[in-house]
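Sample A.
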Amino acid sequence: MNATIRKFGYPATLIATFDHWVVLLRPAQPTLGSLVLAARSDATAFGDLPAEAHAELKTVTAAIEAALSGAVDYAKINYIMLMMVDPHVHFHVIPRYEGERSAHGLTIGDAGWPAQPDLGKAVKLDEAQIAALGGWLKPYFA
């Protein structure tokens, strides 16, 4: 796995694996259920991914949207590509909702609703919370 995937806590944060992508629990949660969708390659430009990785995004995003719909009943979903600090191709996947959502003792509101997500107000998860939320989300991808 590339350095960006490892920086986001792999393997502890791993939720689902695809041929060209991994889905990780985002260790800082601006909204409950926030994920990182990361390319498994060493590409640092979206256009440098192989065609098969682009094609697989259809399957991966459908799985993410179905899973997060079941887990947090989001109203909108934001896929944000921020590759300034972590260079390998990845998206921050932020389910958006009005109000709050709760799971495993965490209650997280969408501080930016209905505008852009407020990434600065993300709840930083500890190891136990990562394990609990990861265990909660994984079955939604089965």
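Sample B, a different protein:
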Amino acid sequence: MAVSKCVKYLLFFFNLLFWISGCIILGVSIYLKVNKNDNQLTSEAIPGVDLMIAIGVIIMVLGFLGCCGAIKENRCMLLLFFISLLAIFILLLAAGIVGAVNEKTVNDWVNKRVVEKFTPLMEKPESVRQDLEKLQTEMKCCGLVQGKEDWGGKIPESCRCEATEEDCKAGFYSTPCLDRIVEFMEGNLEVVLGIAFAIAALLVFGMVMAMILYCQIGGKDATTTA
């Protein structure tokens, strides 16, 4: 049984793109990690950078493994590649299902992380208050959990708003920034889930191609031995 060159090179280019994707994810993640302008409030609420770095490294390793297995027709590498993709597929599918079912737990999770670390606000370092002011300007909110009350008697200018603006009460934004962060995360959760299931579909394609090539190489080796 001959090895199909179409399957072989299709799997090779699939893994090459897989490896390039891993490089991009890793590069962007490292940039975000070392970016000194990062806001510590949003970093705590959305701690995905370290996870992205890990995912980038794993994808790079698997892409390299798949490329070598395909071009060298190495059954051991292909089998290891298949098992790794299957494990990631199961974990990704489980995470996607749990995320879709427990979408509202995002609110509780973010509240717990941020409230525990950054309240009471007036007892925290100046850097925390500066980051919150930046967030207030960007998201048009005031305070972290309780609104302007978080600032005590000294409410910053970034909390002020025009009477004609939405969510403006008595000259100040009425929505706490924590609510804005939760809204942002919930609004993007569907996009994240969609990407997760799209990646899962690509993993299935990679597994099918790897197994076809694995079986073809096995058939060729059996014919050669006979």
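Observation for Sample B: The mean pLDDT is 77.
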